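Weekly puzzle thread! Below is a chain. First person to post its structure in token form gets bragging rights.
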Amino acid sequence: MARYQATLNSPDSREAVFEYLADFRSAAEWDPGVKAARLRRGEPGKAGAEFEITSRFAGRDVPLVYRAVEVDRPGRVLLVAESSSLVSRDEITIDEYDDGGTAVTYTADLRLRGPLRLFDPVLQVLFNRIGDNARDGLAEKLAQPLAERHGAQAA
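Winning reply:
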């Protein structure tokens, strides 16, 4: 199993950051490895919501369906994707600072299944590189206030 964890800061409120990240379609905005993201069913920010995410991994497009299995608004979302070859578990926790800003901790676990488990030692190295790219993209998005991000998107 490979694990990646990063903690980032945002000037936004806990609620605003939760709304942005619990709608997992946002991954296409901040994770350069995500090529497409769409809502399949449910409502973002609620348990049962499903997101179809297409990521580029090892030179090929890998479609996965992430399901919000646990939601503790506005502090935590647990998303899980399972396929015949892997299980991906992404947990986002959001804590508020006294000054109103937030700390976002993103933890991703990736476990290969079946014969692919032989590649677990190599997977951590690849996962660190993928995680660093996603962390950098998310840090850039979260560094500017949410209102500015929405304003830039509308322009």
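Puzzle host: Confirmed. Bonus trivia for everyone else. The chain has four helices and seven strands.
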